[in-house]
Design goal:
GcvT/YgfZ/DmdA; 7-stranded mixed β-sheet; 5 helices; GCVT_N; TrmE/GcvT-like; Elongation Factor Tu (Ef-tu), domain 3; alpha+beta; single chain; Aminomethyltransferase folate-binding domain-containing protein; 6-stranded antiparallel β-sheet; Gyrase A, domain 2
Amino acid sequence: MNRWLDAYADRFPDVTIDNTSDSTGVLGLAGPRAAAVLAAIAAPTNGTIPFMKLHTTQIQGVDVRVLGLSFTGEAGYVVEFYHHHQCAARGIARSRRPSHVDMSRYEVHCPLEHIQTVYDAVWRAGQAHGIENVGTFAVNAMRLEKGFRVWGADMNKDTTPLQAGLHRFVQLDKATPFVGQKALQQVLQSPCRSTPLFMFGAVGGAPWKLENPRPPPHPLDAWGNEAVWHNGKVVGNTTSGGFGHIVNKSIAFAYVPTSLAVDGNHVQVEL
């Protein structure tokens, strides 16, 4: 990405690019009480940040940028931090989920050197709401249930946004031309050979049959790069997967021919 941006920035002498990844920290806050927690420490957000919108504010005197976005796929926030450090950090705080309550989701971005200050403020404010820390496996399970793709696994530089099912994020008729616009317009007018298939399923013998219930003693889940079979032939491969604890099923993404990406079709994944 950096090389790509640098290549095009050379065309504009007044444009400079500064990669702040190593000095920026991100804290995720998601759950049914996320809006209340954020509102208590970062007024005047009031938990009303729309999806993909940005709000600048302060938490404990630290300048932060709050996004209406979360990798868990819920309504919530993410916080970023910036400073000169060798590695960026990401933390996730999540309040318990009652089944009948809508979820909030946020990302808070700020200088990495202040991430502990912001985390402590979020943690204190969340005590009254049952806040908990969440690990990456839990986050991955939730993003699979939501259908969120992962860069480098479910999509890469050889995958078009249309193949990855990201149509709503691409404005193909945008008046200002952008890199790849014509290519995507051509793809849209021609049949796409493969498309991501969001699969719900469970382990049911060898190979894995998506339509079968998951036997508790055999917790096998797709991880990525497993062969996808249909009528005795390999028709694609998984890109990522895991167990969805809310739907109580094993879940996987896979690229398969468009003819198979139809509701009701059954495929198998070899684990």
